[in-house]
Amino acid sequence: MRVMAAAVLVMESLLMGFALLIAKDDATATALWLGSILSFLLFITAGMLKRKGGYQIGSVLQLGLIAYGAIVTLMYFLGTLFATLWIAAIVLGRKGEAIKARLIAERDAKNP
Questions:
Q1: How many other β-carbons are positioned within 10 Å of the β-carbon of residue 26?
Q2: Which of 9, 27, 54, 79 could form a disulfide with 31 if both were Cys (CB 3.0 to 4.6 A apart)?
Q3: pTM of the predicted model as reported, rounded to 2 decimal places
């Protein structure tokens, strides 16, 4: 779960970098700083997923990514797309971890 979620966060951080390139000519300095901070937080949060609070922070940052659509309109769509990938990474990651735990338990039951 952590690997997929971290990959999504790093890709979102790169996406924000590209969004900043689009916004640099028309946006205010405050909007550019907010985008830069959001990009940095997305990248840092990818490394914080070892802790339980990392997933909550990542989920909140998804809202910021979508909200940046007020600056770069395309981010409404891309933010929603990546938020969907974030949810999929968590759901599929949990299923994968459950399957792995079950297989390990079966293996240990066969080989005491």
A1: 9
A2: 27
A3: 0.88
